């Protein structure tokens, strides 16, 4: 069973719970999220599998729980390996924010710890995603405005909080 640290709004650990209990009871816990940019400054996004949060929509390519006692940077490396098949060596911390929603019959009260990875590695997707695509910033700006339904709620949330320049 996977355990996560329960945190307060300032990211101080105040307890521990199973991931299932954290969702069942709506406890705030850490999740790493990362955008991936290549050397051409394109954004890598993945289309989620239908049975996942934001199924069928494009989302940030890396997202996963920080296990109890795990350093968020180690979680970022682990999640990138699990979801994209490579270990990032060049990344930076962007910031954190709370994302709380009810989806797939559970309460996801997540402290998003957002990063940016710079890599030209070719993604090797796991079962959570069905495809990947690179977007230029202009393509993202247009897509977010003209076809917002192509992008998941969590991605819209991250864009609004950390990348508002993508809104035209």
Count the domains.
1
Under CATH at level 1, the class stands as Alpha Beta
Annotated CATH homologous superfamily: Nucleoside Triphosphate Pyrophosphohydrolase
CATH architecture: Alpha-Beta Complex
Protein name: Nudix hydrolase domain-containing protein
GO molecular function: hydrolase activity
Pfam family, one: NUDIX
InterPro entries: NUDIX_hydrolase-like_dom_sf, NUDIX_hydrolase_CS, NUDIX_hydrolase_dom
Q: What does this entry look like structurally?
A:
Keywords: Hydrolase. InterPro entries: NUDIX_hydrolase-like_dom_sf, NUDIX_hydrolase_CS, NUDIX_hydrolase_dom. Pfam families: NUDIX. Residues 27-157 form the Nudix hydrolase domain. GO terms for molecular function: hydrolase activity. The protein is an alpha+beta fold and 168 residues long. It has one domain (3-166): Nucleoside Triphosphate Pyrophosphohydrolase. 24% of the residues lie in helices and 39% in strands. The protein contains 4 helices and 9 strands. The protein has helices at 19-25, 72-84, 137-146, 153-162, and strands spanning 3-7, 13-18, 29-37, 43-48, 58-59, 62-65, 91-103, 106-118, 129-135. The strands form 2 sheets. Strands 3, 4, 5, 6, 7, 8 and 9 form a 7-stranded mixed sheet that branches. Strand 3 and strand 4 form a beta hairpin. It is globular and about 45 Å long. The termini are far apart. The mean pLDDT is 96.
């Amino acid at each position: 069973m996977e355990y996560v640290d329960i945190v307060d709004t300032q990211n101080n650990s105040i307890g521990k719970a199973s991931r299932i209990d954290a969702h069942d009871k709506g406890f705030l816990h850490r999740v790493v999220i990362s955008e991936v940019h290549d050397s051409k400054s394109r954004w890598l996004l993945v289309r989620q599998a239908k049975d996942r949060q934001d199924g069928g929509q494009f989302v940030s390519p890396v997202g996963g729980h920080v296990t109890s006692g795990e350093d968020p940077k180690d979680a970022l490396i682990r999640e990138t390996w699990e979801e994209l098949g490579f270990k990032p060596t060049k990344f930076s911390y962007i910031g954190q924010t709370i994302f709380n929603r009810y989806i797939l019959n559970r309460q996801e009260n997540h402290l998003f710890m957002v990063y940016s990875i710079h890599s030209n590695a070719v993604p090797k997707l796991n079962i959570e995603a069905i495809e990947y695509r690179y977007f230029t910033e202009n393509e993202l700006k247009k897509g977010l405005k003209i076809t917002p339904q192509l992008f998941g709620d969590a991605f819209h949330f991250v864009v609004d909080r950390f990348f508002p320049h993508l809104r035209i």
